[in-house]
Specification:
heterodimer, A: 316 residues, mainly alpha, Muramoyl-pentapeptide Carboxypeptidase, domain 1, two-stranded antiparallel ribbon, 7 strands, B: 471 residues, Nuclear Transport Factor 2, Chain: A, 10 helices, 14 strands
């Protein structure tokens, strides 16, 4: 009886162990979704700012990193972080999350910025929100702006900002960056909404560069210009949508949209090619289609007359 | 006692052995049972976890499918809305005798056609029927807008135009029929997306548009989608035909002062401008050149400069860049050119040159030159506009003076008006006075030099990605 009892208890122990194991497995499956959100605040390769600099200084002092602290989290900093994590029994992933930060004695605040986002804080024509309103009220009371503060950064506000910048020895570009904001005594925290609206061509340029990168990044430079030109030729053609976004996102039009490569960050060459095409370069002289003869399968596409070959693409 | 003890002592090992054996057997049995039980339990738990995630994936998939279906349905019903009134409105215009009524109906067609155009763009593009259907709505909207503008200016519709509108009304009915076919399958409860969805039949519903027997009226009018613009000829480059070999000689001639190597003929260009294409090294960098097969003119040349953005130097192209651009164009045979616009970006500047004929700037005939600011070297040129538009023109004498034109402006002008021939709506060219004005930014205002009407306004924007440009 005692023995049977123990066999049940062994069985139930086994079961418990397995259940616990499953729970652990379950947790592991769920866990990544939690870490993903936590990662947003972490420092990793590509981050920059004063926190990164502080961290680098510490890593240099402790001998994990050589050189000087430049505030940019690069590959070298990453290796140093991994070495630090290994030496301190932390997960060696090269990402400074809350634990690693704690071990290093640094605080992870929102002050760390990921690459590229630092320019977004400035107020400029097209911005709106309470920060703009505060700024306008100040500019009105100082006599740079007339009318009333409406919270919208328009052409008149821009002229007023330029006048203010001139009077205060700042670069008169009409953009309220950190220096101008400091001189005005306003803070540029997240109170400003994104600037938007209107047919700004930098968004067109960006979209076009993404198509070039997604579709033709291995192609010769002229081939890249030609791909961008095909998009613009379609915008001009009556048989296609009348905007760049309309053409690019038309169903089945570009492979890079279907396979998601359009979301890759374009390189310099793609941007240059897109800019050339927007400025009028079109090596295809009016072509509306292109394909790679080696990989194309669409009969409809293959039936078209080729007008030009550049690199791996046939333009028609 | 002692015997008992002995017995006990003697028996004990036997008992122990027996017990041990029994115990061992039971432990093994328990372990096997436990493991089997545990495995079953873990299989059940594992399966439920897997099922849970599978279910979640299916649910997510279905949610996306429904969302996509909603997007397509919305586009489809918008398309139906846009197309439904077209036929009737077009016929009404055909019979209307009042210019005001005609104009308002024409604008109605324009708005409906724009809606239809935008919605049709949501669907698959790689099909001749859809391409033709798209062309039809685009041209219809564009044509109506151009007619409405003209009727507004006091020129009534001609009988041919009325007839064309009625013919387009018939085509709008065919269009509507195609859409109704799709409606039938939707009526059967089909979704757009997924296997056997209405999307599969959507493209084929428009196949009539690509049928060779389906006759389109030729659409030549004053607008950007006019058929006239689709059959362009490089009228400026119509000289004698050259060979690919002589093209090489032209290149060495054009690039005097540059170090050129490895000139290689890489194929023909059979686009709107027939060209011979060459790859080569110019000052050690890869370049691509297109020479027109007729006359051996340089139509386009472009270089990929070093990767990584060049250091920006200045906002407006410096005088040396402009001089080099002009000198380069002059050597290629583009004579009497003037710099009309320049903008700089990432250490490269784009300089637009336009020919000047009897003091009139010909904006249609632009030659665009790209110059690297670091050393003011020309690194690209495009003469497509020049090729399609440049010719000896009979430019009429202005009727009003620059001073009279200046009086038409609402803003004080920063410049004396200069004469410029500008392209309007893609087809027409108008002789104008160009004025530069400032008020919360820079405007270029164009006053018709014959009628004194304001015909175009451009506003200069400073764009992060593109540098200075007008819109």
């Amino acid at each position: 009886m005692q023995i049977r009892k123990s066999s049940i208890s062994v069985a139930s122990k086994c079961l418990l162990v397995f259940m616990a194991l499953m729970i652990v497995v379950g947790l592991l499956v769920f866990y990544p979704t939690d870490t993903e959100t936590a990662e947003a605040a972490a420092l990793k390769q590509g981050s920059s700012g004063s926190v990164v600099k502080t961290m680098q200084t510490k890593l240099i002092n402790w001998g994990y990193l050589s050189g000087r602290a430049d505030g940019v989290f690069g590959a070298k900093t990453k290796s140093a972080v991994i070495a630090f994590q290994r030496a301190n029994g932390l997960t060696a992933d090269g990402v400074v999350g809350t634990r690693t930060a704690q071990a290093m004695g640094i605080t992870l605040s929102t002050s760390s910025s990921s690459a590229g986002s630092s320019t977004g804080t400035a107020l400029k024509q097209g911005s709106s929100g309470t920060a703009v309103k505060t700024m306008q009220t100040k500019l009105i009371s100082w006599g740079y702006l007339s009318g009333k503060a409406d919270g919208v950064f328009g052409a008149k506000t821009k002229s007023a900002v330029i006048a203010f910048q001139r009077a205060n020895g700042l670069p008169a570009d009409g953009v309220v960056g950190s220096k101008t904001a400091q001189a005005m005594g306003i803070t540029l925290s997240g109170s400003q909404s994104t600037s938007g609206g209107g047919p700004t061509s930098s968004t067109d340029l960006n979209l076009l560069a993404r198509v070039v990168y997604g579709e033709a990044r291995g192609e010769p430079y002229t081939g890249q210009v030609a791909v961008a030109a095909v998009v613009l030729n379609r915008v001009r053609s009556s048989s296609f949508p009348n905007s760049i976004a309309g053409v690019v996102y038309q169903s089945g039009a570009f492979d890079c949209v279907a396979d998601g490569q359009i979301n890759l960050t374009p390189n310099d060459s793609a941007f240059k090619a897109a800019r050339d095409a927007l400025n009028g370069w079109d090596p295809s002289y009016g072509c509306l289609f292109y394909y790679n003869p080696r990989t194309a399968t669409s009969k409809w596409m293959l039936s078209r007359t080729i007008k030009l070959n550049i690199g791996n693409h046939a333009f028609c | 006692m002692s015997t008992k003890q002995v017995r006990v002592f003697c028996e004990e090992p036997q008992d122990n052995k027996k017990n041990k054996k029994g115990k061992n057997g039971k432990v093994v049995k328990t372990a096997v049972l436990g493991t089997a039980f545990g495995l079953c339990a873990s299989a059940i738990v594992g399966l439920s976890v897997a099922l849970y995630f599978a279910d979640r994936t299916v649910q997510t998939h279905e949610t996306y499918q429904r969302q996509m279906d909603a997007v397509y349905s919305r586009a489809y019903y918008d398309l139906l809305d846009g197309a439904s009134g077209l036929g009737v409105t077009l016929r009404k215009i055909g019979v209307s005798n009042s210019p005001r009524m005609q104009q308002s109906l024409l604008y109605e067609v324009w708005a409906s056609a724009s809606l239809a155009e935008n919605s049709l763009a949501m669907f698959e593009s790689q099909d001749d029927g859809i391409l033709q259907a798209q062309k039809f709505v685009n041209q219809l909207g564009d044509y109506s807008q151009s007619l409405a503008r003209r009727v507004g200016n006091g020129t009534p519709l001609t009988p041919e135009e009325r007839e064309k509108l009625i013919k387009m009304g018939d085509m709008a009915d065919v269009y509507m029929n195609a859409l109704e076919q799709v409606q039938d399958s939707l009526g059967e409860g089909k979704m757009f997306v997924g296997d056997g969805g209405a999307l599969e039949g959507f493209t084929s519903a428009f196949s009539q548009f690509s049928d060779p027997s389906f006759e389109y009226p030729e659409m030549i009018y004053d607008g950007p989608f006019s058929d006239a613009l689709e059959s362009r000829e490089p009228i400026a480059f119509m000289g004698e035909e050259i060979t690919a070999q002589t093209g090489v000689d032209f290149i060495s001639d054009y690039f005097k002062g540059y170090e050129i190597q490895n000139v290689e003929y890489i194929g023909d260009g059979n686009g709107d401008i027939p060209t011979f294409n060459y790859s080569l090294l110019v000052d050690g960098a890869d370049a691509f050149i297109q020479i027109s097969r007729h006359g051996g003119k340089l139509v386009a040349f472009n270089m990929s400069t070093s990767d990584g953005a060049e250091q920006a130097v200045k906002q407006e192209a410096g005088p040396t860049c402009q001089q080099n651009a002009l000198a380069f164009a002059d050597r290629l045979g583009f004579k009497d050119m003037q710099v009309v616009w320049s903008s700089s970006m990432n250490g490269e500047c784009y300089i637009n040159l336009a020919p000047v004929q009897n003091g009139v700037i010909l904006y249609s005939d632009l030659v665009k030159v790209k110059v690297r600011e670091r050393d003011s070297r020309v690194i690209g040129l495009d003469a497509t506009h020049y090729a399609f538009n440049h010719r000896d023109r009979q430019i009429p004498a202005p009727v009003i003076t620059a001073a009279q034109a200046g009086e038409r402006l609402s803003l004080p002008s920063e410049s004396d008006g200069r004469l410029a021939l500008i392209p309007l709506h893609g087809m027409r060219e108008v002789l104008t006075y160009e004025f530069e004005c400032h008020s919360d930014g820079t405007y270029f205002i164009y006053i018709d030099a014959l009628s004194g009407d304001e015909v175009n306004i451009l506003y200069v924007i400073d764009d992060n990605g593109m540098g200075m440009r007008t819109m």
